[in-house]
Amino acid sequence: MDASFINIAIVVVYLLAMLAFGWWGKSRTKNNSDFLVAGRRLGPFLYTGTMAAVVLGGASTVGGVGLGYKFGISGMWLVVAIGAGVLLLSLLFAGTIQKLKIYTVSQMLTLRYGSRATEASGIVMLAYTLMLCATSTGAYATIFVVLFDWERPIAIGVGGAIVLVYSTVGGMWSITLADQVQFIIKTVGIFFLMLPFTLNAAGGFEGIRSRVDESFFQIDGIGVQTIITYFVVYTLGLLIGQDIWQRVFTAKTPNVARWGGATAGIYCILYGVAGALIGMAASVALSGIDIAVKDDVYAEVAQTLLPVGIGGLVLAAAVAAMMSTASGALIAAATVARADVLPFVASWFGRDINTEDSDNPEHDVKANRIWVLALGIIAIVIAIITKDVVAALTIAYDILVGGLLVAILGGLVWKRGTGIAAAASMAVGSVVTLGTMIVLEINAEAPLDGIYANEPIYYGLLASALVYVAVSLLTKPTDPQVMRNWQRRVAGQAAEESPLPTAAR
């Protein structure tokens, strides 16, 4: 049989399996908590797999190999920064976050500060999660274009539809089960197939060393400034992203959130090293092939260096990585839109929507499905019509970190932080970040140079931190009753989950 046919067949079987997991997850979804956070009952194995799957997307898998191909071992730093973010979140904050029994980051801010002014954070979080979903949707379409010879819009539409179906039908349970399979496929594909086969094709480390520049073995070969940027953007971003927090909410106990997440963080770091090594070996083993775009290296290794069938499994691993990120971002976007953004917008029109119809759990699940479906369609359309979704994601990511990081982490670690200070720091940090980006873009030599610059996020963080500390010290401490309620939540004494708004239906 033709090798490409076998590879295609393996990927098709994988895609069909994802749809099957959607229906499997549906049988476990009975209420709001099941749909959004898998009933908050994931044990160590499922939790570790789903956390690793959601953070290791196309940038970590295909992009990580491409960075190794171009820069050598230092190409690992992007994924290492992601792993460091998961480690820090898990060891420092995940236990506390799990005890809160909430659904969104914005709900944490409201609980901690007792101020509705912080609800505007939901808009930034929605933009971030929606753009993350659109970026991942466009990314796995590149695999379908190569594999099936489809036009890009068709590839995006088909791939997006598959993610949309299993996410809509079963919610977080379907996503968790799919993520577990994706985690296993990625582990086998990267560590046990691509790495040994590519190293062998390159003649091992000695073969690589004899044919590449010495900088390929330098740990800072990619540049110290680039490494710092990875840690500022990805490590800090992972500490506060709704898509990551929503996985923390699924943990059964604080210990599962803490140590299962730490295990996932260590796995991510090893994953980054493996990807860089595969890229290094590919630069030697594929030296006779002209590869213009570094992100094409992954697919080239799968189709050129690996035996028939194994290449298909490795391509499925790439699709798995991108789909896990897309589905995680999609349900996060739907949760934020329903729980945070809609009530915030409604309040401007004098409507107060704070209660939940607990007598209608099936109706509640149906409402969540509608939100996932609607936002999933929007993400697919954005991925199809926008040529540079990454620029939009970068803007959202910078504002997320530059604007929201200080208020969120400040609320977790500093009792003196106040709601007025949190709202002010979010506003100032966001404005400074966006303003610096605009100024740099106006004066940039090439389009998008200002958007992709490092300075906006640095200035935004600094301004946000200064305002948060200063305003906190100049304003009255948070209301004692609010702090008592917060301390009860942090101690795991929440009587029930925070509700979602009725009018969101």
Automatic annotation (TrEMBL):
<feature type="transmembrane region" description="Helical">
    <location>
        <begin position="393"/>
        <end position="414"/>
    </location>
</feature>
<feature type="transmembrane region" description="Helical">
    <location>
        <begin position="6"/>
        <end position="24"/>
    </location>
</feature>
<feature type="transmembrane region" description="Helical">
    <location>
        <begin position="262"/>
        <end position="289"/>
    </location>
</feature>
<feature type="transmembrane region" description="Helical">
    <location>
        <begin position="183"/>
        <end position="202"/>
    </location>
</feature>
<keyword id="KW-0812">Transmembrane</keyword>
<comment type="similarity">
    <text>Belongs to the sodium:solute symporter (SSF) (TC 2.A.21) family.</text>
</comment>
<dbReference type="Pfam" id="PF00474">
    <property type="entry name" value="SSF"/>
</dbReference>
<protein>
    <submittedName>
        <fullName>Sodium:solute symporter</fullName>
    </submittedName>
</protein>
<feature type="transmembrane region" description="Helical">
    <location>
        <begin position="301"/>
        <end position="322"/>
    </location>
</feature>
<keyword id="KW-0813">Transport</keyword>
<feature type="transmembrane region" description="Helical">
    <location>
        <begin position="222"/>
        <end position="241"/>
    </location>
</feature>
<feature type="transmembrane region" description="Helical">
    <location>
        <begin position="75"/>
        <end position="97"/>
    </location>
</feature>
<keyword id="KW-0472">Membrane</keyword>
<feature type="transmembrane region" description="Helical">
    <location>
        <begin position="45"/>
        <end position="69"/>
    </location>
</feature>
<dbReference type="InterPro" id="IPR050277">
    <property type="entry name" value="Sodium:Solute_Symporter"/>
</dbReference>
<feature type="transmembrane region" description="Helical">
    <location>
        <begin position="370"/>
        <end position="386"/>
    </location>
</feature>
<dbReference type="InterPro" id="IPR038377">
    <property type="entry name" value="Na/Glc_symporter_sf"/>
</dbReference>
<feature type="transmembrane region" description="Helical">
    <location>
        <begin position="118"/>
        <end position="148"/>
    </location>
</feature>
<feature type="transmembrane region" description="Helical">
    <location>
        <begin position="420"/>
        <end position="444"/>
    </location>
</feature>
<keyword id="KW-1133">Transmembrane helix</keyword>
<feature type="transmembrane region" description="Helical">
    <location>
        <begin position="456"/>
        <end position="475"/>
    </location>
</feature>
<feature type="transmembrane region" description="Helical">
    <location>
        <begin position="154"/>
        <end position="176"/>
    </location>
</feature>
<dbReference type="InterPro" id="IPR001734">
    <property type="entry name" value="Na/solute_symporter"/>
</dbReference>
